[in-house]
Amino acid sequence: MRTVSVAMRMVPAAMRTEAVDVRRRVRSGRGSARAAGEGPKGSAGMIQWVSLGTGPRPVPQPVSTPLVWATAFAGAMALVAVLNALVGTDRPGLALTALSLLSALLGVYARFTAAPGTAALCWLFLNGFAIPPAGVLTWANPRDTFWLVCLLTAALTGTALARLLQARAAYRRLTTSVLPRPQEPGDWPGDM
Predict the structure, then answer these.
(1) Do 14 and 97 belong to one domain?
(2) CB 3.0 to 4.6 Å from 125: which of 76, 93, 106, 173, for a disulfide?
(3) How far apart (Å, rounded) are the C-alpha atoms in residues 58 and 160?
């Protein structure tokens, strides 16, 4: 137990409570030998790593960019294949709407830096497989520029909306737990 108390001096006070609670349970007989840091067969000196987090994170971390792009690749490919099978390749407006929704949905879980790649991947499948001739990339300046802007706007809108909603929820969680209850004034001057 001496090594635990020496190590506890270096840990901030807010994080000490979890380790102190474990020591109290072990001393009272309610905890196990593993909770006290002892290994199998009662050998002292083994270290058990325990997360000393103080609770849930106020704002969740976004998904990594390569994972978002892999999902955009697979999702756009599947979406264009389903649309081609159901309605054909002569309705690019429907494909643009579906890919914009996919881009916005992926933007909810992504960083802002993933938006251009997500839009480009969705545009590649839109241009290459959702319009005739299938499998050929073409560039028609006003049309493809509009498509790229729509897909990029959808991805950025999804990301911005998600960040605003997460920040608002985190602000509410933090302010409701920190603010004290307001006191009502008394009937007489000086009463609080």
Answers:
(1) no
(2) 76
(3) 17
